[in-house]
Fold each of these.
Amino acid sequence: MVVKKQMLNQNSTSIETAPDFDTSIRIEMALYENGGSRGKYLNMAFNNLLSIPIPPTSVESERAFSSSGYLCNHLRSRLSDKTLDTLLFLQSHYKAQPKI
């Protein structure tokens, strides 16, 4: 985790830079929940979470789900999860290949 690495790389001996990351975050979260402000490590964790691009919906996942419905129907209902994953991977791989 990026925040944990940043915390461990600091060379300060103050109480704020305790070596136990989980304990520091829990203390800062408890203080924040009781009406305080975000501490240094909680703020770093918050900023790192905001920097992760997570789309609210994904067209690719919807397409994969739809494709799995075509592959796994009442005639092919005994396909294992691994086989279905492999078939979907191969289908997407070959669709991405340039046409010759």
Amino acid sequence: MLRNYHSSMKQATCELVPELDFFGLAGWGKHVISMVGFKTPYPQESIEQCVAPAHYPQEVKE
């Protein structure tokens, strides 16, 4: 998905650790993003606070 997002990410890679709920790294160029997830519902209020101000079209936010 990252590779298709922008031409600067054509060499993007992703590593996941299957033993954990979710832990992974995504990287391209000098950038690395750490990801972590848990098998539990995320509070709706927290999602709204993070997603509402994002500079993306409404259909992406939904």
